[in-house]
Design goal:
The structure is a single chain. By secondary structure, this protein is an alpha+beta fold. It folds into 5 domains: about 10-60; about 120-280, Sandwich (Jelly Rolls), CATH 2.60.120; about 290-475, no CATH class; about 535-615, 2-Layer Sandwich (Alpha-Beta Plaits); about 615-720, no CATH class. Helices cover about 15% and strands about 35% of the residues. The chain is built from 11 helices and 43 strands. Strands 17, 19, 20, 23, 24, 25, 26, 27, 28, 29, 30 and 31 form a 12-stranded mixed beta sheet that branches. Strands 7-6-8-14-10-11 form a 6-stranded antiparallel beta sheet. A 4-stranded antiparallel beta sheet has the order 1-16-4-3, with no helix packed on it. Helix 1 (about 10-25) crosses helix 2 (about 40-55). The longest helix has 20 residues, at about 40-55. The radius of gyration is 36 Å and the shape is flat.
Length: about 725
């Protein structure tokens, strides 16, 4: 790194002493150097100014750091709202408006992101068929800490299925299920991306009546964010026809059936299903203080009726803006009432005496500003004085999500008419031009800040001519709550205690400059191109959607080559991947290898040939002769076998480092050391290793050398004990 020079290397006293020494040289007649002398006073002033200039010159300001981060394409991260799912137990019908609020303990507010229509079906039965018979798992699912294997202990491709029995399935209605899985594995799954390959293939079907009985047909799948039973997420689907209740067999109740059938089980873990919830509600930890709803009227009529389906419109107040040829203006002639529409409540606004010159250009021409009742006094900011750099306080206990903040200003337009104009939020006023209607928000002082006619326009002078049209707050990282119940929900005919089956995540506080700098430093260390062996291993281990236990990159090695030796394939890198699985000898399947290869294809050098393979398991036979103490006959072969097996397990699975020992030789000395550590063993008289694999051999020291993509495991073990 470059060494920064120190410009602040003089104190005030040092500067004055240096100046006083120069006085006799430059002006000998000046003999009074006491502090009362006016000349000394002026010199002290300039010495102080020099010291302050050097002090500031020696420091990088916050704005300077932000500018340097911008040159690197990085910005200071804003606050973010936590996300989770909410389930309403024992509720089978009803509707919730967009922005419906759910309160968690600690007065933490969550809002649903869309209008929610609850389906009328109930899950009555849950069965697993592993290809040999049906097993009722509903009681297991109801227990909060238990899980079941949805396709059985030993899944059979094309046969193993999960059956959900519901009371009704209606045609052309969208159904939503939330599948909750246990993810307490020692190896974490990499996050999925939109184009990620599924670890396993699962098809969803519904039972329909046919001539020969029950026939299962594929559902119209909107999306499956579980990626084939790989993570806790939502699925949505429709069915092509109404389903009739039937029984799957003796002792199984009559239901309308949904079936998830495994087509390809993959090479990873057998999924653990913990629960199934219907109608999951996606919510975010935020509180919408005010918001604007836009409408487009296509016909110019004197009156208009608007239907609002948001929680803020139902519980708060409204202000209506209409747009004519000159811009937006407030319309006060309206009537408001609440009415029911099916299972939902809506706010109905009747606009009376609309202006005749209402703009009809196919874009929005009506806005309804909805806001909390308590926010009415703070909605309109104090008027603009027309001066640069104006600041207006906007204070909340929680953090304002700045990017969702917007205002309107009542000012004179180009047509010389007073109208409301939109002003947009911008992170830095330095990015705005002199005519840009922009503003920013100073989080430290909780103030809205306008420009100075050089960096952002200045609002025209007026009384109470600035109104906040959108404001959302959040608690940031405090919204990352654990699983648990919310406060009792009472809305219309709905009364229940909601709960979130999975923890909330994604909530974050705004970064400071120091955190942003450290994040950028860490990002500079991230691998962006595969050059070294470590690059290949790091990138392969991060393949989206996969659960990878071990990776090894082997340069200049081609396992398919007939030439012996490790450096027989120039410009070739072989990447060995080991998936996480409960199988004692996990092997990647073709889809797994293709996923890793496709991921590496975006990073490899154009002159490099990359091969992705699985490991080869090498069986090692062991013969040992052990001398035991005469009085320690309790030491038996079982303990010695366990010590040897533990050594092979450590090499193969990488315990405790977690990195499998690809190509690691098996040494007689280490095995002897492991055995001698067993209580009652005097010494190991003989250790003989054997292997039967073409690319493995025993060296002159008796150690077994295996190929670089090999993993050893214990085969035949013979123990001879001597006293």
């Amino acid at each position: 790194m470059l060494t920064l020079p120190n410009y602040d290397d003089q104190r005030f006293e040092d500067i004055m002493e240096m100046v006083k020494r120069r006085i006799p040289v430059l002006y000998p007649q000046w003999t009074d150097m006491n502090e009362h002398d006016p000349g000394i006073t002026i010199l002290e002033l300039f010495a102080w100014l020099k010291e302050m200039q050097q002090y500031h010159l020696n420091r990088i300001t916050t704005q300077g750091y932000e500018n340097m981060l911008a040159l690197l394409g990085a910005v200071v991260s804003e606050s973010s709202a936590a996300l989770t799912w909410i389930v309403l137990p024992n509720i089978s019908q009803g509707s919730l408006p967009q922005g419906m609020r759910f309160e968690a303990p600690g007065e933490i507010i969550f809002e649903c992101q869309d209008t929610v229509k609850l389906n009328t079906f109930r899950i009555q039965s849950i069965y697993v068929n592993d290809g040999t018979g049906f097993q009722d798992v509903q009681d297991i699912i109801r227990e909060p800490k238990l899980y079941c294997h949805p396709f059985g202990q030993n899944p059979m491709e094309g046969e193993s299925s999960l059956y959900l029995g519901v009371d009704r399935l209606e045609q052309n209605r969208e159904f939503s299920l939330f599948l909750q899985f246990d993810d307490s594995y020692p190896v974490l799954r990499n996050p999925f991306k939109d184009n990620s390959r599924r670890p396993r293939n699962v098809v969803w079907e519904y039972g329909a009546a046919a001539e020969n009985g029950l026939e299962f047909k594929p559902v119209e799948l909107s999306f499956d964010r579980t990626y084939g039973f790989s993570q806790s997420e939502e699925i949505r689907f429709r069915i092509g026809e109404d389903a009739d209740p039937v029984s799957l067999g003796e002792g199984i109740p009559e239901c309308c059936w949904l079936r998830a059938r495994m087509l390809r089980k993959g090479c990873e873990e057998n999924p653990r299903l913990m629960n199934i919830h219907k109608d999951p509600i996606p919510v975010s930890q935020k509180r919408t203080i005010c918001d604007t709803i836009s409408f487009t009227l296509l016909e110019n009529k004197e009156d208009a009726v608007l239907k609002l389906r948001t929680w803020l419109a139902l519980k708060g107040r409204q202000t209506v803006f209409v747009r004519d040829s000159s811009g937006w203006q407030i319309h006060n002639d309206l009537l408001t009432h609440i009415q029911r529409e099916g299972n939902a409540e809506i706010a109905v606004l009747k606009l009376i005496n609309l202006p005749q010159d209402l703009l009809m250009d196919g874009t929005e021409n009506i806005r309804v500003l909805c806001y909390e009742t308590d926010f009415g006094e703070s909605l309109v900011l104090s008027g603009s004085n027309g001066l640069p750099g104006q600041r207006f306080p906007l204070e909340f206990q929680d953090t304002i999500l700045r990017e969702q903040l917007s205002v309107m200003v009542y000012e004179e337009t180009e047509q010389e008419l007073k109208r409301w104009t939109d002003w947009k939020y911008i992170s830095k006023l330095s990015q705005a031009g002199p005519y840009d209607r922009s503003f920013t928000y100073d989080r430290a002082n909780q103030e809205i800040v306008f420009g100075d006619n050089e960096q952002g326009a200045v609002p025209q002078a007026g009384d109470h001519n600035i109104v906040v049209t959108r404001c959302v707050t959040s608690k940031g990282s405090m919204g990352n709550i654990a699983c648990g119940s919310f406060e009792v929900l009472e809305y219309g005919d709905i009364r229940c205690m909601p709960y979130n089956p999975v923890p909330a995540s994604g909530g974050g506080d705004a970064e400071n400059i120091g955190d942003a700098i450290e994040r950028v430093k860490a990002s500079l260390k991230q691998v962006g191109k595969a050059v070294t062996v470590a690059d290949y291993e790091e990138l392969a281990a991060a393949t989206p959607g996969l659960r990878i236990m071990g990776v090894k990159a082997i340069p200049f090695y081609d396992p398919d080559s007939r030439v012996s030796g490790e450096k027989q394939a120039p410009a070739t890198v072989t990447v060995v991947v080991l998936p996480y699985s409960e199988d004692p000898f996990p092997m990647p399947d073709e889809q797994f290898l293709v996923a890793v290869g496709k991921h590496l294809e975006d990073y490899r050098l154009i002159t490099t040939n990359v091969k992705v393979i699985g490991p080869v398991y090498i069986k090692i036979s062991v013969y040992i002769e052990v001398v035991l103490e005469n009085n320690r006959w309790e030491t038996n072969e079982t303990v010695i076998k366990a010590a040897i097996a533990s050594y092979f397990e450590t090499v193969r699975k990488g315990i405790p480092e977690g990195k499998p020992g690809f190509g690691q030789p098996i040494r007689e000395s280490i095995i002897a050391m492991k055995i001698e550590a067993v209580p009652g063993v005097v010494h190991v008289k003989k250790v003989t290793l054997g292997v039967r694999y073409n690319e493995s051999y025993k060296d002159k020291y008796g150690n077994i050398t295996i190929p670089p993509h090999g993993l050893p495991y214990l085969g035949d073990l013979q123990i001879r004990t001597l006293s």
